[in-house]
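Kindly inspect this one:
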Amino acid sequence: MKTQETKVFKNEKDFRNYLRNLNLMPEAFNRTVSNPHVNKMGDSLKCIKVQRAINVIRTSAFGVKDGLYVADGQHLRKSILNNPKADLGNHLVVFENNLEKIEDIIPFVSRMNSIAKNWSLANYLDAWTTQGVKEYVFLSNKFKSSFYTLSCILEAYVTDRTDTSAYRNGKVVIDEFRGDQILNAYEQACSVGLNKNSSSLLATARFFKSKGQLPIEDFVNMVSKNQNTFKHKLNRDAYLGLFRNFLK
């Protein structure tokens, strides 16, 4: 972050004009405005007026030199503009932050919004994919072309899933070959009796990561020999415990 500024408006006209000239961030960087939530905010305005600041980013990163974008408070902004006669009260405040790089904007917006609702795995994936970061483009393509959940895709391909900050900040490390091996082993195991569900795939990924170069055929044979056990839907840790017990 380069600089910060707190703007305090003395009258509603100047405040509304400032809000009217703000831009919404591209959808990959912030959630879509929900009209039902805007309406709820409008009801709150009538009762308690404005009771929070609106957070703004000044940046040239989206193609407009020194453009002003709503980082947090987009529903409040729209509610104010939708209710031109509403009494806004005396707390008309904007926090303006100068950010120059996309890699600074994404974590800033996600942390700002975490007060209300944390960014999901998909939010981060979309944001970094939009920026063309090759690892995220690869993960996005895998996710869209498969029937697996995003969590499963990440478990298979991300080298260290415990390092969540790396994923959030655009620094994820993936192993394409290893991930393909895991999915191949999983599909073969399902074809001989492993119950196909997210928990069994998550367990398979963690098991393979912990075992180094375990031959796929050994894993598949183990499942085949214990079909009566693996045909049931279990949780991840139960599958993982069975894998380790049968392939010590």
